[in-house]
Amino acid sequence: MKERPMMASKEPSIFRPPGEANSFLLRVTQGCSHNQCTFCSMYRQVRFRVRSWTEVEKEIIQTALHHPFLRRVFLADGNALVLGTAKLLNIINTLHRHFPKLSRVTCYAAPGDILKKSPQELDALKQAGLRMIYMGIESGDDGVLAAVNKGITSDGIITAGQKVLQAGMKLSTMVILGLGGREKSRVHAANTAQVISLINPTMLNFLTLTLYDGTPLKEEASKGNFQPLTPLETLFELKEILEQVSLVRPCILRSDHLSNPLPLAGILPKDQKNLLQDVASLLPTLQIRSPFL
């Protein structure tokens, strides 16, 4: 029987990657310590705080009483790696004591928080059981990153991603199609492909920009200062990224988020040609339907 996700019921919603659907969602922080990206609505109304050790330990103990044999834990919320290494190690070690069959611990991490960890700290976390980190690239273009207030440059993202992999952990990355709008689509695609190539992550996930109520980016779009891409333009952007990515090590690609105009799945670089053919096969249909051509 699959383990069901478990979470606290009286706190704000917990966001997690699709691959953590059956994991124990252990909230070690609440919200996002940066929380200034103009496109993100996930934690906009949530005040960031670090949960106390008493809260975290109590939740671990209570969960272990009912699910002692769970195997996977996801440390929430938006960037658990903002915690000090000693505290993270204590959390992971406590999880292993209470869940003897625990096989992996994962978390979201902002590039800036990864950069603050030394190679020795990342190695210690990996040895303790932190197996994979989810990191948002969003865009590889510095102009786009600055416009959306990501708080990091492309060089910082590259260095952070490489540090995770050098520590022996898996790295799952996210890219947002359309984040540069119509004006910056080409540079967003080209520079994002370059960043992906330099990192060569374990996994690469594509999402398409969604303009959420209450976000600064949607307000900019409503004023005409930001022009979102059409589904056809989004597909062309995806095509440009896939054409320009050059990887040495295998990378699992997923473009199956509901926001995307075309679901894709494969392994780069092995399936690169087939994935491009899948994109090309849909272009004529969207071209016929598009009112912008």
Tell me what the structure shows:
With 293 residues, the protein is an alpha/beta fold. The protein is 40% helix and 17% strand. The chain has helices spanning 53-66, 85-98, 111-115, 119-128, 142-147, 154-166, 185-199, 216-222, 231-244, 272-289, and strands at residues 24-27, 29-30, 49-50, 72-76, 104-108, 130-138, 170-177, 203-208, 251-254, 265-268. Strand 7, helix 7 (185-199) and strand 8 form a beta-alpha-beta unit. 40% of the residues are buried. Mean pLDDT is 92; it is low at 1-9 and 288-293.
Structural class: alpha/beta
End-to-end CA span: 51 Å
What does the radius of gyration come to? 20 Å
Main beta-sheet annotation: 8 strands, mixed
Q: Provide a count of the helices.
A: 10
Oligomer: single chain
Please sum up the structure shown.
By secondary structure, the protein is an alpha/beta fold. The chain is built from ten helices and ten strands.
Name some characteristics of this structure.
293 residues; 10 helices; alpha/beta; two-stranded antiparallel ribbon; disordered C terminus; 10 strands; eight-stranded mixed β-sheet
